[in-house]
Design goal:
Shape: globular
GO molecular function: 2-dehydro-3-deoxy-D-gluconate 5-dehydrogenase activity
Helix content: 40-55%
Radius of gyration: 19 Å
CATH architecture: 3-Layer(aba) Sandwich
Number of domains: 1
Largest sheet: 7 strands, parallel
Order of helices and strands: EHEHEHEHEHEHHEHH
Strand content: 5-15%
CATH superfamily: NAD(P)-binding Rossmann-like Domain
Structural class: alpha/beta
InterPro entries: NAD(P)-bd_dom_sf (IPR036291), Sc_DH/Rdtase_CS (IPR020904), SDR_fam (IPR002347)
Keywords: Oxidoreductase
CATH class: Alpha Beta
Mean pLDDT: 89
GO cellular component, one term: membrane
Number of helices: 9
Bound molecules: 1,4-dihydronicotinamide adenine dinucleotide, the ligand O=C(O)C(=O)C[C@H](O)C(=O)CO
Family: Belongs to the short-chain dehydrogenases/reductases (SDR) family.
Low-confidence stretches: 262-275
Distance between the termini: 45 Å
Length: 275
């Protein structure tokens, strides 16, 4: 693992999955970890493991989709204090329920409220504090689904495309301020999200492996990164195709290109025969 120069580190989504793996990889003597998540008990478990590695840890359990929640969390650091590194690793998948032909509106609203509104509110609150401090680094967890939309998770894919667009806007806004923005777009990582998936995911990566890649990208000063490489290359090649060919290839790989799986069995469609 690279030895990164951050001391005060805030991780939203630090209770499980990629966020927890990043917390563990960053934990060590001299590090102050501020962990936040929706679920209290797993958050405490991650905190304990990080303390065992010598870090000081503060936990905060909240729902970041609620107005004011992001700023309230960062305010706990004290007036005028900003994180050196803020990692926004919150997210919900909100896939279409089995047998449904549309995503329920309540699910779509919740996905956007967490993955987009909540993530943006936190990044903005962090950017404000870092701008005043004249330094800092923000990491946003997007997804390859932004480039390769998942047919059964349209709200999720749209939320990640929105986040990718926001990352570009934020990077431009913060240019010259001393604050950096890294957008991370993973394929499948073995977490609670992918555990719900039926069938094999051939390019599944472990959370510690994903965390290592993210930290290496930070060390190299990258502003965006995507993995695994095989899926990124496939998407890049697809982008070279004329739009109609691209659509045909995507349709063949019904579920997802970043999965690179064989075509999934046909999905039952509702009246209107859309697809
Ligand atoms: N697992 C995967 O294959 C991939 C995950 N990602 C993204 O990476 C990020 C982390 O994903 P995973 O570790 O897989 O997820 P996970 O389900 O293991 O963990 C999600 C974290 O977000 C927190 N969270 C969810 N809703 C929240 C809310 N309303 N308020 C506060 N915290 C909330 C949870 O408490 C948890 O700590 C997400 O943004 C996800 O979309 C992107 C690509 C692939
Ligand atoms: O961004 C992604 O890609 C994912 O999060 C993948 C999902 O977790 C998934 O495939 C769940 O079925």
């Amino acid at each position: 693992m690279p030895d990164l120069p951050y001391r005060r580190i805030a991780i939203a989504g630090g209770s499980r999955g990629i966020g927890a793996a990043l917390a563990l990889a960053l934990a060590g003597p001299g590090r102050e970890l501020w962990l936040c998540a929706r679920d209290g008990p797993p958050l405490e478990e991650t905190a304990r493991a990080c303390r065992d590695k010598g870090a000081q840890v503060r936990c905060h359990s909240c729902d970041l989709s609620q107005p004011g929640a992001a700023a309230a969390w960062l305010d706990e650091m004290g007036e005028g204090r900003a994180p050196d590194l803020l990692i926004v690793a919150v997210g919900i998948f909100g896939g279409r329920p089995d047998g449904a032909v549309v995503t329920p509106e309540a699910v779509m609203r919740q996905v956007i409220a967490v993955n987009l509104t909540g993530a943006l509110a936190l990044a903005e609150a962090g950017a404000l504090r870092m701008r005043c401090a004249g330094r800092g680094q923000i990491v946003l967890l997007g997804s390859l689904a932004a480039r390769d939309p998942l047919p059964d998770a349209p709200a999720y894919s749209a939320s990640k495309a929105g986040l990718a667009c926001y990352a570009r806007a934020l990077r431009a806004d913060l240019a010259g301020s001393g604050v950096g923005v890294l957008l991370v777009e993973p394929g499948h990582v073995e977490t609670r999200q992918t555990a719900q998936h039926q069938g094999a995911l051939p390019l599944l990566m472990s959370p510690p492996a994903a965390a290592e890649r993210i930290l290496r990208a930070l060390d190299r000063g990258r502003s965006s990164m995507a993995f695994p490489r095989r899926a990124v290359l496939a998407l890049w090649l697809l982008d070279l195709l004329p739009a109609a060919w691209r659509a045909a290839v995507l349709a063949r790989h019904r579920f997802s290109v970043h999965n690179l799986a064989p075509p999934a069995p046909p999905v039952a469609r509702g009246p209107g025969g859309e697809d």
